Amino acid sequence: MAVSTGSVNLGQGFPDTDGPAFMLAAAEQAIANGVNQYPPGRGIAPLRQAIADHSARHYGLGYDPDAEVLVTTGATEALASAILAFVDPGDEVIALEPFYDSYAASIDLAGGTRVGVGLFGPDFRLDLDEFAAAFTPRTKLVLINSPHNPTGTVLDRAELAEIARLAVEHDVLVVCDEVYEHLVFDDARHVPLATFPGMRERTVRISSSGKTYSATGWKIGWALGTPELISEVTAVKQFLTYVSGAPFQPAIARALNEGDDWVAALRADLQRKRDRLAAGLRGIGLEPAMPRGTYFMTTDVRPLGYADGIEFCRDLPTRCGVVAIPHQVFYDDIEAGRPYVRWAFCKRDEVLDTAIERLNRGLGRTSG
After folding, report:
1. Secondary structure letter of residue 293 according to DSSP
2. CA angle, residues 11, 357, 315, in degrees to nearest 5
3. Which has the closest alpha carbon to 43: 19, 18, 78?
4. Helices (H), 97-241
5. Superfamily for 2-17+261-362?
6. What's the DSSP call for residue 202?
7. What is the CATH number assigned to the segment(s) 21-258?
8. Which residues pair with residue 325 across a beta bridge?
9. pLDDT (0 to 100) of residue 308
10. Residue ranges in the chain whose pLDDT is less than 50
Protein backbone atom coordinates (compact mmCIF):
# COMPACT_ATOMS: atom_id res chain seq x y z
CA MET A 1 0.00 0.00 0.00
CA ALA A 2 2.88 2.35 0.75
CA VAL A 3 4.35 1.81 -2.72
CA SER A 4 1.07 1.95 -4.62
CA THR A 5 -0.03 5.19 -2.93
CA GLY A 6 3.38 6.88 -2.71
CA SER A 7 3.00 6.98 1.05
CA VAL A 8 5.56 7.64 3.75
CA ASN A 9 6.17 4.22 5.29
CA LEU A 10 6.15 4.41 9.08
CA GLY A 11 4.92 0.83 9.24
CA GLN A 12 7.85 -1.44 8.54
CA GLY A 13 10.65 -1.45 11.09
CA PHE A 14 13.76 -0.71 9.13
CA PRO A 15 15.91 2.43 9.10
CA ASP A 16 16.36 4.53 5.96
CA THR A 17 20.03 5.26 6.65
CA ASP A 18 23.00 2.89 6.67
CA GLY A 19 25.21 1.66 9.47
CA PRO A 20 28.79 2.78 10.22
CA ALA A 21 30.95 3.47 7.18
CA PHE A 22 33.82 1.30 8.44
CA MET A 23 31.44 -1.67 8.67
CA LEU A 24 30.16 -1.16 5.13
CA ALA A 25 33.72 -0.86 3.86
CA ALA A 26 34.68 -4.09 5.61
CA ALA A 27 31.92 -5.97 3.77
CA GLU A 28 33.00 -4.51 0.44
CA GLN A 29 36.59 -5.52 1.14
CA ALA A 30 35.53 -9.04 2.11
CA ILE A 31 33.71 -9.47 -1.21
CA ALA A 32 36.74 -8.16 -3.10
CA ASN A 33 38.96 -10.54 -1.16
CA GLY A 34 36.87 -13.55 -2.19
CA VAL A 35 34.98 -14.16 1.08
CA ASN A 36 31.99 -15.38 -0.91
CA GLN A 37 31.67 -19.11 -0.20
CA TYR A 38 30.23 -21.06 2.71
CA PRO A 39 31.54 -19.89 6.08
CA PRO A 40 31.90 -22.40 8.95
CA GLY A 41 28.61 -23.81 10.14
CA ARG A 42 28.62 -21.95 13.46
CA GLY A 43 29.98 -18.74 11.93
CA ILE A 44 33.52 -17.48 11.41
CA ALA A 45 35.75 -17.55 14.47
CA PRO A 46 36.39 -13.76 14.58
CA LEU A 47 32.65 -13.05 14.65
CA ARG A 48 31.95 -15.64 17.35
CA GLN A 49 34.79 -14.13 19.41
CA ALA A 50 33.42 -10.62 18.87
CA ILE A 51 29.95 -11.73 19.99
CA ALA A 52 31.38 -13.30 23.13
CA ASP A 53 33.51 -10.22 23.86
CA HIS A 54 30.49 -7.95 23.34
CA SER A 55 28.48 -9.93 25.90
CA ALA A 56 31.30 -9.85 28.45
CA ARG A 57 31.95 -6.15 27.94
CA HIS A 58 28.36 -4.96 28.21
CA TYR A 59 26.82 -7.44 30.65
CA GLY A 60 29.60 -9.36 32.38
CA LEU A 61 28.29 -12.57 30.82
CA GLY A 62 31.09 -14.75 29.46
CA TYR A 63 30.56 -17.32 26.70
CA ASP A 64 32.94 -19.75 25.03
CA PRO A 65 33.05 -18.62 21.38
CA ASP A 66 33.71 -22.17 20.18
CA ALA A 67 30.97 -23.97 22.12
CA GLU A 68 28.42 -21.38 23.28
CA VAL A 69 27.98 -19.02 20.30
CA LEU A 70 26.07 -19.68 17.07
CA VAL A 71 25.84 -17.25 14.14
CA THR A 72 22.43 -17.37 12.42
CA THR A 73 20.58 -15.85 9.49
CA GLY A 74 19.22 -13.02 11.56
CA ALA A 75 17.49 -13.31 14.90
CA THR A 76 14.42 -14.73 13.17
CA GLU A 77 16.27 -17.92 12.26
CA ALA A 78 17.78 -18.15 15.73
CA LEU A 79 14.29 -17.91 17.24
CA ALA A 80 12.83 -20.49 14.87
CA SER A 81 15.74 -22.86 15.45
CA ALA A 82 15.45 -22.59 19.23
CA ILE A 83 11.68 -23.09 19.27
CA LEU A 84 11.87 -26.04 16.86
CA ALA A 85 14.73 -27.53 18.88
CA PHE A 86 13.01 -27.46 22.26
CA VAL A 87 9.24 -27.47 21.69
CA ASP A 88 7.49 -30.76 20.97
CA PRO A 89 3.85 -31.25 19.95
CA GLY A 90 1.61 -30.44 22.90
CA ASP A 91 4.19 -28.36 24.76
CA GLU A 92 3.13 -24.90 25.93
CA VAL A 93 5.15 -21.75 25.27
CA ILE A 94 4.54 -18.68 27.41
CA ALA A 95 5.17 -15.47 25.50
CA LEU A 96 4.48 -11.79 25.99
CA GLU A 97 1.46 -10.66 23.97
CA PRO A 98 1.44 -8.79 21.57
CA PHE A 99 3.92 -11.11 19.87
CA TYR A 100 6.54 -10.42 17.22
CA ASP A 101 4.92 -12.19 14.28
CA SER A 102 7.45 -15.00 13.77
CA TYR A 103 6.81 -16.36 17.27
CA ALA A 104 3.35 -17.65 16.42
CA ALA A 105 4.51 -19.27 13.19
CA SER A 106 7.49 -21.01 14.81
CA ILE A 107 5.44 -22.32 17.74
CA ASP A 108 2.81 -23.62 15.30
CA LEU A 109 5.49 -25.29 13.17
CA ALA A 110 6.77 -27.08 16.27
CA GLY A 111 3.27 -28.22 17.20
CA GLY A 112 3.33 -26.22 20.41
CA THR A 113 0.61 -24.19 22.07
CA ARG A 114 1.03 -20.46 22.51
CA VAL A 115 0.10 -19.03 25.93
CA GLY A 116 0.00 -15.26 25.81
CA VAL A 117 0.55 -13.02 28.82
CA GLY A 118 -0.63 -9.53 28.03
CA LEU A 119 1.40 -6.35 27.78
CA PHE A 120 -1.88 -4.59 27.05
CA GLY A 121 -2.70 -0.92 26.74
CA PRO A 122 -2.94 1.72 27.81
CA ASP A 123 0.19 1.31 29.97
CA PHE A 124 1.67 -1.84 28.33
CA ARG A 125 3.06 -3.22 31.58
CA LEU A 126 3.47 -6.85 32.59
CA ASP A 127 1.03 -8.27 35.13
CA LEU A 128 3.26 -10.61 37.14
CA ASP A 129 0.31 -12.40 38.73
CA GLU A 130 -1.03 -13.23 35.27
CA PHE A 131 2.44 -14.35 34.24
CA ALA A 132 2.73 -16.68 37.24
CA ALA A 133 -0.71 -18.13 36.55
CA ALA A 134 0.27 -19.01 32.97
CA PHE A 135 2.53 -21.90 34.04
CA THR A 136 1.14 -25.41 33.84
CA PRO A 137 2.70 -28.90 33.87
CA ARG A 138 2.85 -28.63 30.06
CA THR A 139 4.94 -25.43 30.03
CA LYS A 140 8.18 -26.20 28.20
CA LEU A 141 9.51 -22.79 27.23
CA VAL A 142 9.21 -19.13 28.14
CA LEU A 143 9.83 -16.61 25.36
CA ILE A 144 10.77 -13.14 26.57
CA ASN A 145 11.17 -10.12 24.29
CA SER A 146 12.64 -7.05 25.98
CA PRO A 147 12.92 -4.34 24.75
CA HIS A 148 9.54 -5.37 23.40
CA ASN A 149 8.21 -5.07 19.87
CA PRO A 150 5.65 -3.59 19.24
CA THR A 151 5.00 -1.82 22.58
CA GLY A 152 8.47 -0.43 23.37
CA THR A 153 8.27 -1.79 26.93
CA VAL A 154 11.58 -2.52 28.66
CA LEU A 155 11.21 -4.96 31.56
CA ASP A 156 12.73 -3.68 34.80
CA ARG A 157 14.84 -5.59 37.33
CA ALA A 158 11.90 -6.48 39.56
CA GLU A 159 9.94 -7.92 36.64
CA LEU A 160 12.95 -9.84 35.36
CA ALA A 161 13.74 -11.19 38.82
CA GLU A 162 10.22 -12.60 39.15
CA ILE A 163 10.36 -14.13 35.66
CA ALA A 164 13.67 -15.74 36.60
CA ARG A 165 12.29 -17.05 39.89
CA LEU A 166 9.32 -18.63 38.14
CA ALA A 167 11.49 -20.17 35.40
CA VAL A 168 13.71 -21.80 38.01
CA GLU A 169 10.75 -22.90 40.14
CA HIS A 170 9.05 -24.57 37.17
CA ASP A 171 12.33 -25.79 35.67
CA VAL A 172 11.65 -24.48 32.17
CA LEU A 173 13.87 -23.23 29.38
CA VAL A 174 13.87 -19.55 28.43
CA VAL A 175 14.53 -17.96 25.06
CA CYS A 176 15.27 -14.23 25.21
CA ASP A 177 14.81 -12.07 22.13
CA GLU A 178 17.19 -9.17 22.79
CA VAL A 179 17.50 -7.66 19.29
CA TYR A 180 16.77 -4.13 20.58
CA GLU A 181 19.21 -4.49 23.48
CA HIS A 182 21.04 -1.23 22.73
CA LEU A 183 18.05 0.83 21.56
CA VAL A 184 16.85 1.99 24.98
CA PHE A 185 15.94 5.52 26.03
CA ASP A 186 15.75 7.86 28.99
CA ASP A 187 16.67 5.95 32.16
CA ALA A 188 15.92 2.50 30.73
CA ARG A 189 18.64 -0.14 30.69
CA HIS A 190 18.58 -3.58 29.14
CA VAL A 191 19.42 -6.28 31.68
CA PRO A 192 19.74 -9.80 30.25
CA LEU A 193 17.61 -12.37 32.05
CA ALA A 194 20.62 -14.70 31.97
CA THR A 195 22.34 -12.52 34.60
CA PHE A 196 19.85 -13.62 37.29
CA PRO A 197 20.49 -16.60 39.60
CA GLY A 198 19.86 -19.97 38.01
CA MET A 199 19.23 -18.51 34.57
CA ARG A 200 22.40 -18.75 32.51
CA GLU A 201 22.20 -22.53 32.26
CA ARG A 202 18.55 -22.50 31.11
CA THR A 203 18.58 -19.45 28.81
CA VAL A 204 19.24 -18.99 25.10
CA ARG A 205 19.99 -15.34 24.37
CA ILE A 206 19.27 -14.15 20.83
CA SER A 207 20.28 -10.88 19.22
CA SER A 208 21.13 -9.42 15.84
CA SER A 209 23.29 -6.91 14.05
CA GLY A 210 20.38 -5.65 11.97
CA LYS A 211 18.83 -3.34 14.56
CA THR A 212 22.03 -2.37 16.37
CA TYR A 213 23.98 -1.43 13.23
CA SER A 214 21.16 -0.43 10.86
CA ALA A 215 21.84 -3.34 8.49
CA THR A 216 18.55 -5.24 8.59
CA GLY A 217 19.09 -6.70 5.11
CA TRP A 218 22.34 -8.41 6.04
CA LYS A 219 20.56 -10.91 8.31
CA ILE A 220 23.42 -11.65 10.70
CA GLY A 221 22.13 -12.75 14.10
CA TRP A 222 23.32 -15.03 16.87
CA ALA A 223 22.38 -17.23 19.78
CA LEU A 224 24.26 -17.68 23.05
CA GLY A 225 23.81 -20.42 25.63
CA THR A 226 25.37 -23.45 27.23
CA PRO A 227 27.10 -25.95 24.90
CA GLU A 228 24.20 -28.36 25.31
CA LEU A 229 21.58 -25.78 24.37
CA ILE A 230 23.56 -24.33 21.46
CA SER A 231 24.21 -27.80 20.05
CA GLU A 232 20.47 -28.42 19.93
CA VAL A 233 19.80 -25.07 18.24
CA THR A 234 22.59 -25.74 15.75
CA ALA A 235 21.13 -29.14 14.88
CA VAL A 236 17.98 -27.38 13.62
CA LYS A 237 19.69 -24.32 12.12
CA GLN A 238 21.87 -26.40 9.80
CA PHE A 239 18.75 -27.68 8.02
CA LEU A 240 17.15 -24.25 7.65
CA THR A 241 19.75 -22.04 5.98
CA TYR A 242 22.89 -24.08 6.71
CA VAL A 243 25.03 -20.92 6.61
CA SER A 244 24.72 -17.38 5.24
CA GLY A 245 26.24 -13.93 4.90
CA ALA A 246 29.91 -14.85 4.44
CA PRO A 247 31.17 -11.33 3.48
CA PHE A 248 28.99 -9.70 6.13
CA GLN A 249 30.34 -11.75 9.01
CA PRO A 250 33.79 -10.10 9.22
CA ALA A 251 32.12 -6.70 8.89
CA ILE A 252 29.81 -7.38 11.83
CA ALA A 253 32.76 -8.68 13.84
CA ARG A 254 34.47 -5.34 13.30
CA ALA A 255 31.30 -3.42 14.20
CA LEU A 256 30.92 -5.35 17.46
CA ASN A 257 34.55 -4.70 18.35
CA GLU A 258 34.77 -1.04 17.30
CA GLY A 259 31.23 0.31 17.08
CA ASP A 260 30.20 1.16 20.65
CA ASP A 261 30.51 4.91 20.08
CA TRP A 262 28.53 4.68 16.85
CA VAL A 263 25.76 2.76 18.65
CA ALA A 264 25.66 5.34 21.46
CA ALA A 265 25.19 8.09 18.88
CA LEU A 266 22.47 6.07 17.15
CA ARG A 267 20.62 5.60 20.43
CA ALA A 268 20.69 9.33 21.16
CA ASP A 269 19.52 10.11 17.63
CA LEU A 270 16.65 7.64 17.89
CA GLN A 271 15.54 9.14 21.20
CA ARG A 272 15.43 12.53 19.50
CA LYS A 273 13.45 11.08 16.59
CA ARG A 274 11.08 9.42 19.04
CA ASP A 275 10.39 12.77 20.67
CA ARG A 276 10.03 14.47 17.26
CA LEU A 277 7.40 12.01 16.06
CA ALA A 278 5.62 12.01 19.43
CA ALA A 279 5.25 15.79 19.31
CA GLY A 280 3.84 15.59 15.81
CA LEU A 281 1.34 12.90 16.72
CA ARG A 282 0.20 14.89 19.73
CA GLY A 283 -0.46 17.77 17.36
CA ILE A 284 -3.06 15.73 15.49
CA GLY A 285 -4.74 14.49 18.64
CA LEU A 286 -2.92 11.19 19.25
CA GLU A 287 -1.16 10.70 22.59
CA PRO A 288 1.71 8.21 22.23
CA ALA A 289 2.57 5.58 24.79
CA MET A 290 6.19 6.68 24.99
CA PRO A 291 8.47 3.70 24.35
CA ARG A 292 11.51 3.09 26.55
CA GLY A 293 13.10 0.93 23.86
CA THR A 294 12.95 -0.26 20.20
CA TYR A 295 12.13 2.20 17.44
CA PHE A 296 8.35 1.92 17.57
CA MET A 297 5.67 3.90 19.37
CA THR A 298 2.01 3.16 19.88
CA THR A 299 -1.08 5.35 19.79
CA ASP A 300 -4.73 4.74 20.54
CA VAL A 301 -6.66 5.97 17.47
CA ARG A 302 -10.03 6.35 19.18
CA PRO A 303 -9.53 10.11 19.75
CA LEU A 304 -9.68 10.49 15.96
CA GLY A 305 -13.02 8.72 15.74
CA TYR A 306 -11.74 5.26 14.81
CA ALA A 307 -12.64 2.24 16.93
CA ASP A 308 -10.48 -0.15 14.90
CA GLY A 309 -6.77 0.14 14.13
CA ILE A 310 -7.05 -1.94 10.95
CA GLU A 311 -9.70 0.39 9.58
CA PHE A 312 -7.52 3.37 10.48
CA CYS A 313 -4.44 1.88 8.81
CA ARG A 314 -6.38 0.98 5.67
CA ASP A 315 -7.71 4.53 5.39
CA LEU A 316 -4.40 6.21 6.17
CA PRO A 317 -2.53 5.73 2.84
CA THR A 318 -5.27 7.20 0.66
CA ARG A 319 -6.43 9.77 3.20
CA CYS A 320 -3.00 11.01 4.27
CA GLY A 321 -0.26 9.32 2.26
CA VAL A 322 1.19 7.64 5.37
CA VAL A 323 1.42 3.97 6.39
CA ALA A 324 1.32 2.55 9.93
CA ILE A 325 0.74 -0.96 11.32
CA PRO A 326 -2.33 -2.04 13.34
CA HIS A 327 -1.53 -3.75 16.64
CA GLN A 328 -4.13 -6.44 16.04
CA VAL A 329 -1.78 -8.39 13.77
CA PHE A 330 0.42 -9.10 16.81
CA TYR A 331 -2.36 -10.39 19.12
CA ASP A 332 -4.35 -13.55 19.81
CA ASP A 333 -6.70 -11.37 21.87
CA ILE A 334 -7.90 -9.16 19.03
CA GLU A 335 -9.98 -6.92 21.27
CA ALA A 336 -6.96 -6.02 23.39
CA GLY A 337 -5.15 -4.71 20.32
CA ARG A 338 -8.09 -3.29 18.40
CA PRO A 339 -7.65 0.47 19.01
CA TYR A 340 -3.85 0.61 18.81
CA VAL A 341 -1.48 1.44 15.96
CA ARG A 342 2.32 1.14 15.74
CA TRP A 343 4.50 3.82 14.17
CA ALA A 344 8.20 3.43 13.30
CA PHE A 345 10.44 6.42 14.02
CA CYS A 346 13.73 5.03 12.65
CA LYS A 347 13.52 7.39 9.68
CA ARG A 348 15.29 10.55 8.57
CA ASP A 349 13.99 13.79 10.10
CA GLU A 350 12.65 15.04 6.78
CA VAL A 351 10.68 11.80 6.35
CA LEU A 352 9.15 12.11 9.80
CA ASP A 353 8.32 15.77 9.15
CA THR A 354 6.68 14.93 5.82
CA ALA A 355 4.60 12.25 7.52
CA ILE A 356 3.40 14.66 10.20
CA GLU A 357 2.60 17.32 7.61
CA ARG A 358 0.54 14.82 5.63
CA LEU A 359 -1.25 13.58 8.74
CA ASN A 360 -2.11 17.15 9.72
CA ARG A 361 -3.46 17.86 6.27
CA GLY A 362 -5.32 14.58 5.78
CA LEU A 363 -6.86 14.39 9.23
CA GLY A 364 -7.93 18.02 9.29
CA ARG A 365 -5.81 19.00 12.30
CA THR A 366 -3.07 21.55 12.80
CA SER A 367 -0.03 20.96 14.96
CA GLY A 368 0.06 22.71 18.32
Report:
1. B
2. 50
3. 78
4. 101-110, 128-133, 157-170, 209-212, 227-237
5. Aspartate Aminotransferase, domain 1 (3.90.1150.10)
6. G
7. 3.40.640.10
8. 342
9. 97
10. 366-368
